Amino acid sequence: xxxxxxxxxxxxxxxxxxxxxxxxxxxxxxxxxxxxxxxxxxxxxxxxxxxxxxxxxxxxxxxxxxxxxxxxxxxxxxxxxxxxxxxxxxxxxxxxxxxxxxxxxxxxxxxxxxxxxxxxxxxxxxxxxxxxxxxxxxxxxxxxxxxxxxxxxxxxxxxxxxxxxxxxxxxxxxxxxxxxxxxxxxxxxxxxxxxxxxxxxxxxxxxxxxxxxxxxxxxxxxxxxxxxxxxxxxxxxxxxxxxxxxxxxxxxxxxxxxxxxxxxxxxxxxxxxxxxxxxxxxxxxxxxxxxxxxxxxxxxxxxxxxxxxxxxxxxxxxxxxxx
Length: 323
Prior knowledge:
The chain contains 7 helices and 7 strands; from the N terminus they run αββββαβββααααα.
């Protein structure tokens, strides 16, 4: 019996291994070697339409997928919630300045990272999980110790609308709408409305004539306004020219008056200087006046002495003064 060749067996085994690796890389798209991060979110509303394998996106970028969906029961049925376990591809999301993405997820949650359900397809009604930062929206979380990082959830737009509709009294609203429609029908069926509708064409014609008249008046007023503006501009220019001429005349008169004032001040200064010289106690003029006054005083004394002697002896005028 012929023994099988060891070389052929080795080639067969290596080929099988290569086929397995190729199949893994082809069908798994390389996800086998990607680092993954498990997260969990708890939704209080219905998760109908969410399936295992549904994408987890952040602003349109697929960053993970849904791995499993379950129900977390509570003694109070109203507090029972849906638990959605997800898996994130850490190599898709890069957090700058942080060495490990797994340690930065709680920090992102503190900064407002939350999850909500959004419509994936309006035709099939399938849902997906959308992650985003919503710091201004109140997010609910279960909390408590857990090995998996929890991302809080916010209501989806459809869930918020459903909650508003649940609190709305549909019967009362329909009754109010019916009463409003009845009142509107009564108003429209009234004789006043019918007459107004019949007179509407004439009213429209009157409005058109009024509009044309207003357009003509506005055009005429615009032309008159333009003429008035032109005339006012010319008058203003003349006034400005007159003001400029008056200013130049005032400048010339002010220069002439200033020269005359300067001459008058110089003459006044000269007169004041002459008066100062005349009134100076030690000046020449004052000394001459003082000498003249002394001479007059001496002459008056002599005449007084002569008058007294004549009174005592009138013959002195005949005899003369004795030596």
